[in-house]
Design brief:
The structure is a homodimer of 321-residue chains.
Chain A (H helix, E strand, L loop, with lengths): L3 H12 L9 H11 L6 H11 L6 H24 L4 E2 L2 E2 L1 H5 L1 H19 L4 H29 L6 H26 L4 H28 L2 H4 L5 H4 L5 H9 L2 H12 L5 H12 L1 H22 L4 H14 L5
Antiparallel strand pairs in A: 1-2
Helix pairs in contact in A: 1-3, 2-6, 3-4, 3-8, 4-6, 4-7, 4-8, 7-8, 8-9, 9-15, 13-14, 15-16
């Protein structure tokens, strides 16, 4: 069994090449550009780990991992256009650098290239892998659409937001693991438990992300605290606060979201604390993490094979902040 | 052997359904919208014809035809964004109706849905079909990028323009026929001749399109004459005129393209006539059509099987204007 770091190193080595033709450079250089600005490569490594949970890593897992990482970058290119984001990982986004029209096409060819890698998968698994990939790709697009819809909606319920996060973030992590499991010859039951492990882990990660934005230690977190609050982003915390604040506090929250006083972050955090959002969020994260581990537990392979996935979960989801 | 019209009727019947989930409607209704505004469905019917040239039509041909038509509509949605086109077939484009962000996603899910249909193809043909589909999809994207690049370039050579048209327009027609041929069990040689038939036919069609814009009978053509000239579009005609006009005429052409006098179309057409662009274009169209028919001729099946494709070519490429 190999650790996340060991597999990451190998994946980086295999992924670090040009994935597109040389010409027209005006198109393909812009696709290749985003692959060169880094990334944690979590999803393809999860595919490799999903495979190794059940069997030695097959060559198909490298191709599917590559397709997954290309899909993730495709979604970043198009999402950055929709969000009008000027920067990603500290450098200009594809559309900022090459123009919106080329960025649309750069995403399109990235998505097509995913299927070049998926088409290399051996015939016995190809149909299943492409079906799961397609289902997931549609869900990620649905999540992005819901995220945009929610921005324009006054009220978003907890379950609506949870569904959106599940689609936009979690299902790709879950499917990465499950595609690996399919390649590793897992039974349908085991593959499904691994999917649920990834899905719950992904939601726990998003709860943590939302929590750290509000209550994280800026020195350890490395980001300005309250970025989501300043941007009026709907988060697990804000949605819970709006659903549970008293009448006066709810009115204050809503009015703070419409204005931008200099002490906005401080005032919103005060309401969050009064409502008990911080403890609630930590409890919510713990619940999702526990559900994730229940599914990992239920997979019928020896527990030493599960160690790298446990380590990954603990690396992604910290116990203290 | 069935005629284009017979196959069209059957394809329309099978294609005329919702191809997307119901929710989120904000996303999928916008994808479904463009499928409901009509279209000639030439490409999927060419896939059926490519199949029937060699064998009875297999169920795979309907799925691949559906994927091809969805791909064509995907490219229309994204191209219309890039071209900032307000109308298509007399109704608002997807981005005009639903916003650019949703239109980007509506195209993305349309492209993903192509592979849902391709994934239904029987295992013996799936790898080959997906490979040709991917190659073609990349080429169509390259063609769109070159078209945008050429708009910003002062000089575009005949061969550059021909290459762009081949990628943007012809290869999808050619691949539609060839995918049908693969499903019909054609030999590699026959499939390749059929591809070349479609590729040359596609270029002949574009030459005719460019010709009709300048020299077509407006009553029979149904469009304003000179639309391309008014829009300063590079066309087969304009590129030939710029390459062959005398010094003074070339200067006049270039200055007409930078200004918009009320008699612009008339003046440009005069230069076209002086340079002999009209006869040249008809000759060029004829050459491509002849090449197309040479390849159709070379396919080793009885000539009565080829009759529907001959009729289609004569329907698409008129002898008189």
């Amino acid at each position: 069994m190999q650790s996340f770091e060991q597999l990451l190193q190998q994946f980086e080595k295999s992924f670090n090449k040009r994935h597109f033709p040389s010409e027209p450079a005006s198109l393909y250089d812009s696709s290749q550009y985003i692959l060169g600005i880094g990334g944690k490569r979590v999803r393809p490594v999860m595919c490799l780990m999903g495979n190794e949970l059940f069997d030695d890593i097959q060559s198909d897992a490298w191709d599917v991992g590559t397709a997954i990482e290309l899909f993730h970058n495709f979604s970043l290119i198009h999402d950055d256009i929709m969000d009008a984001a000027p920067l990603r990982r500290g450098v200009p986004t594809v559309h900022a650098n090459f123009g919106t029209n080329t960025a649309i096409l750069a995403g399109d060819v990235m998505l097509i290239m995913c299927y070049e890698y998926l088409n290399k998968v051996q015939a016995t698994h190809k149909g299943k892998i492409i079906a799961l990939f397609n289902k997931t790709a549609l869900e990620v697009s649905e999540g992005q659409q819901l995220d945009m819809d929610f921005e324009r909606r006054a009220h978003v319920s907890f379950s609506d937001y949870e569904k959106m996060i599940e689609l936009k973030t979690s299902v790709l992590l879950a499917a990465s693991l499950k595609m690996g499991a399919i390649i590793g010859g897992a039974s349908a039951g085991n593959a499904s438990h691994l999917y649920e492990f990834g899905r719950n882990l992904g939601i726990a990660f998003q709860v943590q992300d939302d929590y750290l934005d509000a209550f994280g230690d800026p020195e350890r977190f490395g980001k300005q605290v309250g970025g989501d609050i300043l941007a009026n982003k709907k988060t697990f915390l804000m949605i819970h606060a709006l659903e549970h604040a008293s009448g006066a506090e709810k009115d204050l929250l809503l009015s703070l979201m419409q204005t931008n006083p200099s002490d906005k972050v401080e005032k919103v955090l005060n309401i969050f604390r009064n409502v008990g959002v911080n403890e609630w969020a930590l409890k919510l994260k713990k619940e999702y993490l526990e559900k994730a581990f229940e599914h990992l537990e239920a997979i019928a392979v020896s527990s030493n094979r599960k160690a790298p996935l446990e380590q990954l979960a603990h690396f992604l989801i910290q116990r203290d902040h």
